[in-house]
Design brief:
Helix content is 38%, strand content 18%. By secondary structure, it is of the alpha+beta class. The longest helix is centred in the last third of the chain and has 14 residues, at 74-87.
C-alpha cells in the first residue's frame, strides 16, 4: 500500500493495520531510523496517576472556576494541579 506525506510530513497508517496490531488511541510509537527504513514500534505509556488522582483532576476541571484557566507553561500547570490534589 502506498502512502504519501501530507503538507506537514505526516503519514496516515491504515486503520486495519493498527487494529491488527492492537494499537489504540492511547498508544504511542517509538520511531527509529535504520538505514533507509523507518521502523515504528507500538508502545503503551502507563499513567503515573492513580485512578483516585484522575478522579480528583476531573473534579477540578469540572469546577466552573477552573474552566478556561491559562498557565505560562506545562510545568506551571502541573505544579498547580499537584497542589490542588494534595489539598483535596
Amino acid at each position: 500500500m502506498l502512502r504519501h506525506p501530507n503538507g506537514q510530513g505526516q503519514i496516515t497508517l491504515p486503520k486495519p493495520y493498527l487494529e491488527r496490531l492492537g494499537v489504540t488511541t492511547q498508544d504511542y510509537f517509538d520511531v527509529q531510523l535504520h538505514g533507509s527504513s523507518i521502523v515504528l514500534t507500538p508502545v503503551t505509556v502507563e499513567s503515573r496517576l492513580t485512578d483516585s488522582e484522575v478522579e480528583q483532576l476531573q473534579a477540578l476541571f469540572d469546577r466552573p472556576t477552573n474552566r478556561g484557566r491559562r498557565f505560562p507553561s506545562g510545568q506551571a500547570a502541573l505544579r498547580y494541579l499537584k497542589r490542588r490534589i494534595k489539598r483535596a
